[in-house]
Specification:
Strand order of the largest sheet: 1-2
Helix content: 55-70%
Order of helices and strands: HHHEE
Shape: elongated
Structural class: mainly alpha
Radius of gyration: 16 Å
Number of helices: 3
Strand content: 5-15%
Number of strands: 2
């Protein structure tokens, strides 16, 4: 990932993405008329939100371990967050 991405900013970004998914789910509930399609779409959005939440929880531990991955992509831990990672 890019140099600007660190674990703390990723946690904020993931939290924003989860909130956006909640808004999208609410909009889908209003717009989509067919019940089955509505349930499938809201279920997919819910699964994505849970996945993002789990990734966010994993990022909280990465500063101590100096090894961070988000969906398989390496995230650099800045030296000021943990000097032993440099």
């Amino acid at each position: 990932m890019g140099e600007w991405v660190d674990p703390e900013s990723l946690q904020t970004i993931l939290l924003g993405a989860i909130m956006a998914l909640g808004v999208l789910a609410a909009l889908l509930m209003r717009v989509v008329r067919r019940l089955l399609l509505r349930l499938v779409l809201v279920g997919l959005i819910g699964a994505l939100a849970v996945s993002l939440w789990l990734q966010r929880a994993d990022l909280q531990d990465c500063v101590e371990t100096c090894s961070c991955k988000l969906y398989g992509q390496e995230v650099a831990v800045p030296a000021d967050a943990n000097p032993s990672c440099a």
